[in-house]
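Example record

One chain of 195 residues, shown exactly as stored in the release files.
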Amino acid sequence: MPCVGPLVIDSRLNPEPRLPLARQHAILLTGMPGIGKTTIIRRVAESLCDRRLGGFVTDEIRRGHDRVGFRLKTFQGQSAVLAHVELAGPQRVGRYGVDVAALDTVVEAALDPKAAVELFLVDEIGKMECLSAKFVAAMVRLLDAHKPLVATIASRGGGFIEGVKHRSDVDLLEVTRTNRDGMPTRLLHVLRSVP
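Predicted structure tokens for this chain:
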């Protein structure tokens, strides 16, 4: 991703992420679907392209104006279709079949806390991703390793999703229409202070 210049928002849920990030090492962005969480992750990645990034972003797969699936792209260059309306099988979220095996092939390397990575960006901790036991295990290892992490997380969901939100070592920020444009700058301010 190309480097971009400095970005410039307002947040009402939690005025500032707790500092230092070494103690609250993970920032979780939540909010309604389509609010702009993925865009925030992309803008942060573009601005920090001089750092060693780990994790992945999720792209929509579109056919005309219709969304028909989702593709994961890691910062190491791997890509895999996560979900598609034409995927058959028992693992489904809404109208999408989820390819858990494809997710399994990328998550262990993309989320390895032992990798030479300065910052992990994960889009997202959601229902589809949580169908993978390897994804859940990799996220637990990453969170427990206290590596700097910014992740998007589903606004709804129990189990692992709910558990991650209640960890004492994370900041949970809600992305809204009011604060989303300034959120990348707010995050970068915190992340640039991390050695």
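Notes: The chain is about 25% helix and 25% strand.
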